[in-house]
Amino acid sequence: MAATRYLKRLRLHSPLYKCVSTLLLPRRGLADKNEKGWLRSLFVHKVDPRTDAHSNLLSKKETSNLYKIQFHNVKPECLEAYNNLSAEVQGHLHHDSDYPCEVIGSWNTWYGEQDQAVHLWRYTGGYPALTECLNKLKQNKAYLEFRKQRSTMLISRRNQLLLEFSFWNDPLPRAGPNIYELRSYRLKPGTMIEWGNHWARGIKYRQENQEAVGGFFTQIGDLYIVHHLWAYKDLQSRDETRNSAWQKPGWDSTVYYTVPLIRSMESRIMIPTKNSPLQ
Fold first, then answer.
1. Cα angle at 63 between 58 and 66, to 5 degrees?
2. Cis peptide bond prior to 249, omega within 30° of 0
3. Bridge-based pairing state of the strands 65-74 and 212-220
């Protein structure tokens, strides 16, 4: 038996032997299969079968909003021209009622990947609204010219389609000046429901200072990615706000139970562009 072989080796490292043997060795008379089942229960987290997609369980049902986040890596010498051009085009689309989309925020990365622009869009009406926008933009000569000009300024670009967590704040316009932190978590596949359950309880510890802007998870693009968007007055305020959360009973549990679900994580500190509704 695996446990018995392990304990024979452990005798060389007594006094751990007595302690561990009480945990690993089955009671006298139990069958090997019982031992294997008992040992397996120590390491396997039992989860009830799901009857619905996690997107239906975690997203806001009362609104059918779809979000798109864009990451554009810009040639360093073109960043200012890129920002000006993007601001002009985004302003037209944002205020044109024929397009069911709006800019939630636009930023340049300050700490993180340099010379990067990040844009967050909302499509009111979900996938049909996204499709409507795409079809209309294909016929928009000014937008096609914008894309042609923009392509000369970019090194690379990628995007993701997102849904927002039901328990997070709606990302509403806010006055500045602020800095923004986008914390991106790549989760282990199959753990999104568990993540959502813990954060649904833990988010209350991070809302008292109005720093919580929005929480999203990917639907198309890189999957099992979570994005948390926070706003702070400055880096010192960020440090103080994050430290104060640890003084609140219960926040430590949120961190303790969600860290094992993460494969990797990334933090960007971002500065809003002049046209961003989130300032």
1. 75
2. no
3. unpaired
CB 233 within 8 A of CB 137: no
* pLDDT, tens digit, 9 for 90 and up, residues 90-114: 988 888 989 999 999 999 999 999 9
**pTM given for the model:** 0.79
User: What is the widest separation between alpha-carbon atoms in the chain?
Assistant: 81
